[in-house]
Structure formats: C-alpha cells, structure tokens
Write a structure and sequence with these properties.
alpha+beta, 60s Ribosomal Protein L30, Chain: A, 7 helices, signal
Length: 433
C-alpha cells in the first residue's frame, strides 16, 4: 500500500512502473486525471510540420508517422525500403525511449507503403527483426503517395511499462507464419486487432462473393480476435476500412452495418487505397474497449442523422474520444464548403471540434490525427489551415494521399483525444487519497 501511495503522489507525467491500466478503478479511494504530455527527442530538430513526434497520455504513447529519415542528418537513408523500414523503427525506438518506454510496448502499427508489390517482402524482413517475438498488431497498405521521397511510413501506438501489454491468441486460428504481426494485442485497457481481410485464416483463402462477402468474413475474423480478449465488435470504438475501389463502398456498407445495432456503431474512416496485400477487395482494422472499460457513443446536438452511413460521429472509451473521419462538410447544409483544401481542412477540424465538445473534450487535447488528402500536392495549403488549430503542442500526426475519398472531398481528417486532461510538459494531476 505504501509503494502504491507513493506512486500516485508522484506527478503522472513522470509515470510509475506499477501504475494501473486506465480501466482500473477503486471507487471511493482515489481518482486519477489523465495527462497529455508532448514527447520530445533530444537532438531531433523541430520541423516545419504542425505535429509533435509523439504524445503520451496516461499509459499510452501515440507516435507520429515516421519515415526512414536520419533525424539528425536531416536526410532519407539510402538503401531502399529495407533500410528505410529499419531507420523508421529506430526512430520509433528513440521516441519510445524518450517517453520512458520501449518497442516491447508497441501494441499496433500502420505500415504505409509507396509500392506494395515491389516492397512488401523487403519491408517485412526488416520489420520482423525488431520484434522477434510477440510483434504488435498491424495493418499494411499501399497509399496513393507519401510526402517526399520515402518508400514507407510507419505509425505506431504503444503502452508504457506496467500497463498490461499482452498478445491475444485466438482458439482455432493459427498464428500467421511469415507475417510479423500478432492477430491482436491488449494494452492499457484496449484491444488492438490487426487488419483483417475476408480470408478463411486456416486455409488462407479469400471467400468468394466480392466486397460484401469479404466484409462479412473480415468482421467475423475481427470479432473472433476481440472475443478472445474478452471484448467483441459490440465494444469496438474505432474501425478503419481500406477499399481497393470506392465502387465497392455501398456493398461494403451494407455488409458492415449488419454487425452492430442501429445507434451503436463505432467511429469510422473509410478510404480507397492504392493496393492491398493479396487480391482482397477490403481490409478492416478495429480497436475495442477491453473488459471493465466504459464505452460510449457520441452524437452531436443539431446535426442530422447519418442515414445510410453505419458509423457514429464519435465514441469514447475510458477518457479517450475517437472521432470519425471528418470532411469539410457543412453538417447542417449537407454539402462541402467552397474554397478548396484550406477551407475544407478548416471545416473538417471544426466538425471534429464539435464531436469532441459533444463528448466533453477539447480539440486542443487531441492526441493523434490522421490526414488523408486526395492530392499530396495540397499538403502545404492543408498544413497552413491545420496549424491554426494547434499554435502550440499539436497532436501526433500522419498524412498521406489516399487513392480515393468518399464523395468529392479534397481532405478527410480523423482525430482522437482526451476528454479530461492536464496538458503540457511536466503536467501533474491532483490525486485524492
């Protein structure tokens, strides 16, 4: 008891090795306010992009997308995708060390490739060397374009030491040999499922029937992973849908909607990617609240219902808000705002702000944002509009060109953030005992 009391009396920004996961609660004993802390890496330059290299909140670290740049030499390493993958993960290791953690805590990664058919195997070999055992969950897709000349960008989320990171093993489903990923990982009260396709996993064969049948099988696979961790699709808070063709959007939606009761959908982002592994039409990754963690659905007062779109504007798990992907749409008028990517970015973030506010959060406390552009050439105009929302300590971020977005939008932004926080370096939470 004395050691735990000493731990909670320390500033939460400093962290404690024995700190409980966010799902821990002892009613009537003490309460902990989550903290939002910018992670800074000694010797790394502060770049022109409006992002932080990582944000730490409670027991979780949200890293920005990292490419194979030598951060001190300020150049892309030579040697192609294998060398870039290794450098990107060394960069991640530095971020985790600066946050007080390690690569062992990584729970989920997104690997974004410029060329899937050429680079997937070389990336996999380099990636596998960093997790010889119990790798994180993962999704890997080819995007429309990356910034600069990078062949790969990797974004990861990780648990701090003492926050319960463990691999999920699914009865009846063998591990994916040759793929350096775990089917699922539990960490800090959440369950991270890997990106799944409409595959019969034991035989590694895609189901017949196109996008609708693949979506159904994909979500059945994800549900099995989540249930093995004591959760389930009904407790999912966020899903990412990657489509080979936006022409399959309607068929995917129809199959997808059958897995949740009306009004109970997770938040969601759905984009067209340039390529998926194998011949799949769709790949989906979901994040779910674990046992004992409260899950809520967020609706925004005054906004019309999302008829035909099986998603919630936002969800909450514990004290983290997960907003759906937002476009630059006037939600009352139901149409995109005029003015191009800058105005659409501004409106998309105002929409995200409204979702956060409906959940009792502030956009200033965003932890991680994902920006999908129709054309990577718009990145500067997007950045100028985006930066106005975070003049100081912006969230972690990754930004790519999608192969396609729903409708005619130039940009889509998805953010997650803290509902209640004490922000800033060295911030301390008041602890009541």
């Amino acid at each position: 008891m004395a050691s735990l009391a000493a731990c909670v009396l320390l500033t939460l920004a400093a962290g404690c090795a024995g700190a409980p996961p966010r799902s821990f609660a002892a009613p009537g004993w003490f309460a902990m306010a989550p903290t939002r802390e910018v992670v800074r890496v000694r010797g790394w330059p502060s770049g022109p992009m409006p992002l932080s290299f990582a944000i730490k909140a409670g027991g979780t670290v949200y890293a920005s997308g990292l490419a194979g740049f030598d951060m001190r030499a300020k150049r892309l390493v030579p040697g192609g995708v294998a060398a870039e993958t290794a450098q990107a993960l060394r960069n991640l290791e530095e971020v985790m060390t600066a946050a007080g953690g390690s690569l062992h805590g990584v729970a989920g990664c997104s690997v974004l490739l410029r060329n899937m058919s050429r680079d997937f195997q070389a990336m996999n070999r380099a990636y596998a060397a960093f997790w010889p055992e119990e790798p994180p969950s993962r999704v890997a897709v080819q995007v429309g374009a990356l910034q600069g000349e990078a062949s790969v960008e990797i974004q990861c989320t990780a648990a701090m030491p003492g926050y319960g990171r463990s691999v999920v093993h699914v009865p009846g489903i063998p591990e994916l040999k040759g793929f350096p990923l775990s089917l699922g990982v539990q960490a800090d009260g959440m369950v991270y499922a890997s990106g799944m396709q409409g595959m019969d996993i034991p035989t590694k064969r895609l189901v017949d029937g196109g996008a609708a049948a693949e979506t159904k099988k994909t979500l059945e696979n994800i549900d099995a992973i989540l249930k093995a961790a004591g959760s389930g699709l009904d407790r999912s808070v966020s899903c990412e849908v990657s489509l080979r063709s936006m022409g399959d959007f309607g068929a995917m939606n129809a199959a997808y909607s059958a897995f949740w009761q009306q009004g109970g959908y997770p938040s969601r982002v759905a984009v067209q990617v340039a390529d998926l592994a194998g011949k799949a039409a769709v790949e989906i990754r979901c994040l779910a609240a674990g046992q004992g963690l409260r899950r809520e659905v967020v609706s925004v007062p005054g906004w019309p219902g999302l008829h035909g779109f099986p998603l919630s504007m936002g969800t909450v798990a514990g004290e983290v808000v997960y907003a759906s992907g937002m476009q630059g749409m006037d939600m009352q008028a139901g149409k995109l705002v005029p003015g191009g990517v800058a105005e659409e970015t501004r409106q998309a973030l105002e929409n995200a702000r409204a979702v956060f506010a409906a959940a009792g959060a502030r956009l200033e406390d965003a932890l991680l944002c994902e920006v999908s552009l129709r054309d990577i050439k718009d990145v500067q105009a997007m950045n100028e509009a985006y930066a106005r929302f975070w003049p100081k300590d912006p969230p972690a971020r990754f930004c790519v060109q999608a192969a396609g977005l729903a409708g005619r939008a130039a940009v889509e932004v998805r953010c997650l953030g803290l509902r209640a926080s004490v922000s800033g370096p060295g911030a301390a939470a008041e602890v009541l005992i």
